[in-house]
Automatic annotation (TrEMBL):
It comes from Hibiscus trionum. InterPro entries: Arna-like_SDR_e, Epimerase_deHydtase, Lipid_A_modif_metabolic_enz, NAD(P)-bd_dom_sf. It comes from the Eukaryota. One of its GO terms (cellular component) is cytoplasm. It is an enzyme of class 4 (lyase). Residues 71-341 form the NAD-dependent epimerase/dehydratase domain. This is UDP-glucuronate decarboxylase. It catalyses: UDP-alpha-D-glucuronate + H(+) = UDP-alpha-D-xylose + CO2; UDP-alpha-D-glucuronate + H(+) = UDP-alpha-D-apiose + CO2. GO terms for biological process: cell wall organization; UDP-D-apiose biosynthetic process. Its cofactor is NAD(+). Keywords: Cell wall biogenesis/degradation, Cytoplasm, Lyase, NAD.
C-alpha cells in the first residue's frame, strides 16, 4: 500500500491554494456573507465562462476564516456531484479529487487546462467496488463525500441485488477507511429511509390525517416504515437505512466525524438521462427526466397509479448551498442527520405533470397535447414488487438551527430554468432521432 500512495502523490500536481491573509473587518465580513448568499448565475445559464476571482476572505457561520481543504468526492460525475463540483470550483478555494466511473457531466470543469480552477479538480476513473486506490485517495483528503449509488426507483425492484450491494456493501469500505484514518465523512442517504407516513395507515376519514405529527418527517423522531420483503422497492431504502445505522454507530463507538444527508427529491439540469439520447432507450430515469422525455417527444406524461403520490421538490442549486454549509461548518454539521428539501414545494405527481406541461409550453413555444397525461399501472411501468412513498414533507428544524439554511426557489421557477435547459440541450437531438429514414 505505501508504494501506491507514493505514486498517487507523485501523480498529483502541486495545487495553488487561496490563502486568507486579509484581516477581518466588519465590511469584509458583510461582503463575504453577501457573496455567499447571492450566488452567481448557474454555469449552464452563462453565455461565456465567468473568470474566477476570490477577492474576499470567506468566513464560516461562526465568523472564522474558512481554510482550503481537499475533498475526496465519490460519485462526483453524477447529477448532485456535478453541481457540487461546479460550486466548489467557482466559489471556493477547495481542492476536489473527483471519483466516478463516468465524467461526462463534469467534463466542462476538467477541460481545457486554462480554466480558472485548473489544478484544483482531478478526475479519477474508478469503480469503488474493486479498486485498491480508494483508501489512498481517502487518506489524501481532509473530507470524503460519498454520493455513489444506484438510486433510480426502476432499479430497486428489478435489480434488488445490485441495489443492495451498491447502497450498502460498496459503501462499507468508505466508512471503514474514514473511521480508521480519522477522516471526516459526509454520507448521502435519502428521504426514502422514512418509507411511508404514519398518516397512510390511518382510516381515510380520520381527523388525525390533518395533524402534521402524522406526516411531517423528522430526522430524530420519525420511524422508518417499509413494505413487506416481496415489495422489493424497499431494497434501496433498507440498504440506505442500514448504512446510516453503521455510520452512526462508527460515530458513537469509534468517534467517526460524520454527517448524513437525506435529500428530498432534488431536481434540476443534468438529472439522469433522456432515454435514447444520452441513456438507454429502454431505461427509466427518475420522474423529472421521464416527464421531460415525454414533453420533448410530444407524448402524454405517464401517471403511475393515478399520480396520487405526493413529493416536495427542491432546486438543486438551493440544496447545494446546504451541502456547502455542511462542508465549511464541521462543528455545526458533525454528528447530525439533515433533511434537505423544500416543504413549500409539495405537489401530487399529477400536479407536477400539469405544471411541467404548462412550463414547457411557455419555454418551447409548442402547444400542449389535447390529452397531456395518461394513466398507467405501477406493475406495467415498474414491474412486480413496486411500492411507493405516499407523502414526503421534510421537517426543517435541525438544518435551520444548525446551519440557518432555507430553500429559496419556488417549484414554478425551478421548473422554468430546468425545462429551459432540457429544451435547449435535447430538443434538436430528439427531433433528429424521431425523423424516420424514408424507404427508397
Ligand atoms: N437526486 C436526489 O434527489 C436524491 C434523493 C435522495 C438521495 N439521493 C442520493 O444522493 C446520491 C447522489 O445522487 P444523484 O442524484 O447524484 O445520483 P447519480 O446517479 O446521478 O449519481 C451517482 C453517481 O455515482 C456513481 N457511482 C455509482 N456507483 C459507483 C461505483 N461503484 N464506483 C464509482 N462511482 C459510482 C455513478 O456513476 C453516478 O455518477 C445517491 O447516494 C442517492 O442515493 C439523491
Ligand atoms: O413517468 C413517471 C415516473 C415516475 N412517476 C411517479 O413519480 C413519483 C416520483 O418518482 P421518482 O422521482 O422517479 O422517484 P421517487 O421520488 O419515488 O424516489 C426517489 O426519491 C429520492 C431517491 O432516493 C433518489 O432520487 C429516489 O428513490 C413516484 O410516485 C413515481 O411512481 C410517474 O408517475 N411517472
Amino acid at each position: 500500500m505505501p508504494h501506491i500512495l507514493t505514486q498517487l502523490h507523485k501523480a498529483i500536481p502541486s495545487f495553488i491554494f487561496f490563502h486568507p491573509r486579509v484581516s477581518l473587518s466588519l465590511s469584509s465580513f458583510l461582503l463575504a456573507a453577501n457573496n455567499f448568499l447571492l450566488s452567481p448565475p448557474a454555469l449552464e445559464d452563462r453565455e461565456t465562462p465567468v473568470s474566477f476571482e476570490m477577492a474576499t476572505t470567506r468566513m464560516d457561520l461562526d465568523g472564522r476564516p474558512i481554510k482550503p481543504i481537499t475533498i475526496c468526492m465519490i460519485g462526483a460525475g453524477g447529477f448532485i456531484g456535478s453541481h457540487l463540483c461546479e460550486k466548489l470550483m467557482s466559489e471556493t478555494p477547495h481542492k476536489v479529487l473527483a471519483l466516478d466511473v463516468y465524467n461526462d457531466k463534469i467534463k466542462h470543469l476538467l477541460e481545457p487546462d486554462s480554466l480558472p480552477w485548473a489544478g484544483r479538480i482531478q478526475f479519477h476513473r474508478l469503480n469503488i467496488k474493486h479498486d485498491s486506490r480508494l483508501e489512498g485517495l481517502i487518506k489524501m483528503a481532509d473530507l470524503t463525500i460519498n454520493l455513489a449509488a444506484i438510486c433510480t426507483p426502476a432499479d430497486y425492484n428489478t435489480r434488488p441485488l445490485d441495489t443492495i450491494y451498491s447502497n450498502f456493501i460498496d459503501a462499507l469500505p468508505v466508512v471503514k477507511y474514514c473511521s480508521e484514518n480519522n477522516k471526516r465523512l459526509i454520507h448521502f442517504s435519502t428521504c426514502e429511509v422514512y418509507g411511508k407516513t404514519i398518516q397512510s395507515f390511518l382510516p381515510k376519514d380520520s381527523p388525525l390525517r390533518q395533524d402534521p405529527a402524522y406526516y411531517v418527517l423528522k430526522e430524530d423522531t420519525s420511524p422508518c416504515i417499509f413494505g413487506s420483503i416481496e415489495k422489493q422497492r424497499w431494497s434501496y431504502a433498507c440498504a440506505k437505512q442500514l448504512i446510516e445505522r453503521l455510520v452512526y454507530a462508527e460515530g458513537a463507538e469509534n468517534g467517526l466525524e460524520f454527517t448524513i444527508v437525506r435529500p428530498f427529491n432534488w431536481i434540476g439540469p443534468r438529472m439522469d438521462f433522456i432515454p435514447g439520447i444520452d441513456g438507454p432507450s429502454e431505461g427509466v430515469p427518475r420522474v423529472l427526466a421521464c416527464f421531460s422525455n415525454n414533453l420533448l417527444r410530444r407524448e402524454p406524461l405517464k401517471l403511475v397509479d393515478g399520480g396520487q403520490s405526493q413529493r416536495t421538490f427542491v432546486y438543486i442549486k438551493d440544496a447545494i448551498d446546504a451541502v456547502l454549509l455542511m462542508i465549511e461548518n464541521p462543528d455545526r454539521a458533525n454528528g447530525h442527520i439533515f433533511n434537505v428539501g423544500n416543504p413549500n414545494n409539495e405537489v401530487t405527481v399529477r400536479q407536477l405533470a400539469e405544471m411541467m406541461t404548462k412550463v414547457y409550453t411557455k419555454v418551447s413555444g409548442e402547444p400542449a397535447l389535447e390529452s397531456p397525461t395518461i394513466d398507467v399501472s405501477s406493475k406495467e411501468f415498474y414491474g412486480e414488487g413496486y411500492d411507493d412513498s405516499d407523502k414526503r414533507i421534510p421537517d426543517m428544524t435541525i438544518i435551520n438551527k444548525q446551519l440557518g439554511w432555507n430553500p429559496k426557489t419556488s417549484l414554478w421557477d425551478l421548473l422554468d430554468s430546468t425545462l429551459t435547459y432540457q429544451h435547449r440541450t435535447y430538443a434538436e437531438a430528439i427531433r433528429k432521432a424521431m425523423v424516420k429514414p424514408t424507404a427508397s
